[in-house]
Design a protein that fits this description.
alpha+beta; five-stranded mixed sheet; 5 strands
Length: 157
């Protein structure tokens, strides 16, 4: 746990740190200094820089689980946002009416559930666009078409 984790930070202060050489973001109420991490981000620096100096929780949640921030160094933690209230709207909540995993028989079933879960996010837009290259997108689709789930022979582990 970082000694800064108890520090209270005003959102107005976060707004001032919106450049590559001074980059703070808020994720789930915690303020992170990502200045050094920007260059290392697997999705590229621009992904972070577009949300620098803001509460990036919504954009972050579209691509990452909440727990992945635990991989950041404790020295990245600046503090917590004053009066932070977790979002209570439908954003980020898992649909309660999704079918159980045991009912899914093939990758098309899994894809349908994933699309419902990711609707309205940039993640599904990115996947649909085949932005990196369409050859990979097509080949991945063909590879998954060759996968068959056979629930009667799967072993519960």
């Amino acid at each position: 746990m970082s000694p800064n984790q108890g520090r209270i930070v005003q959102l107005a202060e976060v707004y001032k740190h919106d450049k590559a050489e001074d980059c703070w973001v808020v994720l789930h109420g915690v303020v992170y200094d990502l200045t050094e991490f920007v260059k290392l981000h697997p999705g590229g620096a621009q992904a972070i820089l577009t949300v620098a100096g803001t509460d990036a929780t919504k954009q972050f949640a579209a691509f990452h689980t909440k727990e992945i921030v635990n991989e950041l160094s404790d020295s990245c933690v600046v503090g917590v946002i004053a009066g932070y209230q977790p979002q209570t709207d439908q954003e980020g909540k898992v649909d309660q009416d999704l079918p159980p995993i045991q009912a899914m028989m093939n990758t098309a079933d899994l894809e349908a559930v994933a699309r419902r879960r990711l609707r309205g996010t940039t993640a599904i837009d990115y996947i649909d666009s085949a932005a990196d290259d369409e050859v990979t997108h097509r080949e991945n689709g063909l590879a998954f078409d060759r996968v068959f789930f056979r629930p009667k022979i799967l072993v519960n582990v």
